Amino acid sequence: MRIVLVRHGETPWNQGGRFQGQNSVGLSPVGLRQAQEIAHALNHLDPQAIYSSPLARAFQTAEAICKVGPAAVIPIDDLKELNLGKAEGLTNGTMRARYPDIYQGWGKDPSKIRMPGGESLEELQVRAWKAIERIKESHPHGTTVAVSHNFAIGTIVCRLLDLSLSRFHRIRVDLGSLTTLEHGERGWRLVSLNETLHLRPETTIES
């Protein structure tokens, strides 16, 4: 079986450089176009089901995919983004000034950091992997799609590759990207990471 992990499209907070976390901000006009391009790219896969984080930016992306696949999106709370607590909505500069130790620690070793009033990467990884296992058990054959977020997808890939969360920053997951996992007789394999060729140049954004 295969699971295609989709990172949601761009939001106004991506444009403004704000940390989103579990805030349910929706897609920007560019993000809506990215969602359509993702749907077109997945059209040939005939997914058995489409799962999504219930946060608006992910769910809107999943709804666009549904136009070429199953009729309804199945929400899974465990696919939500890292809970950033008091850091949600802050810009990079404000985060650096208000929480300098957390900001510096995140750059050096993110596995040791808990966001102020929020989650750690380890907690995120545990619940995100539960979502992957749930999808695998529900669909042991064929292809499914799961729409999620930057940090959530990054921790899933680290778990699959047995990569320490201290090296989390080595995983790049762009807006609107596709990452494909496969499960078979030999267990889990990473088929592709951070595919963005389906996005037009004017909608390809790295943040």
- Strand-residue proportion: 15-25%
Q: What form results from the Cα inertia axes?
A: globular
How many domains, as an integer? Answer: 1
Structural class: alpha/beta
The pLDDT mean sits at 94
In the sheet with the most strands, the strands line up as 3-2-4-1-5-6
Instruction: Please identify which CATH superfamily we are dealing with.
Output: Phosphoglycerate mutase-like
CATH fold-level name: Rossmann fold
Q: What is the annotated CATH architecture? A: 3-Layer(aba) Sandwich
Residues in helix, %: 25-40%
Assigned CATH class: Alpha Beta
How much is the radius of gyration in Å? 16 Å
Major sheet details? 6 strands, mixed
Could you tell me how far the N terminus lies from the C terminus, measured between alpha carbons in angstroms? 30 Å
Question: Counting H and I runs of at least 4 residues, what is the number of helices?
Answer: 7
Spans of at least 5 consecutive residues with low confidence: none
- The counted number of beta strands is 6
Description:
The structure is a single chain. The chain has 207 residues and is α/β, with parallel strands linked by helices. It has one domain: Phosphoglycerate mutase-like (Rossmann fold, 3-Layer(aba) Sandwich). Helix content is 37%, strand content 16%. The protein contains seven helices and six strands. The chain has helices at residues 12-16, 29-42, 56-66, 92-98, 100-108, 121-138, 150-161; strands at 2-7, 50-52, 73-75, 143-148, 178-184, 187-195. A six-stranded mixed beta sheet has the order 3-2-4-1-5-6, sandwiched between helices. Strand 5 (178-184) and strand 6 form a beta hairpin. Helix 2 packs across helix 3, helix 4 packs across helix 5 (100-108) and helix 6 (121-138) crosses helix 7. The longest helix has 18 residues, at 121-138. It is globular, with a radius of gyration of 16 Å. The two termini are 30 Å apart.
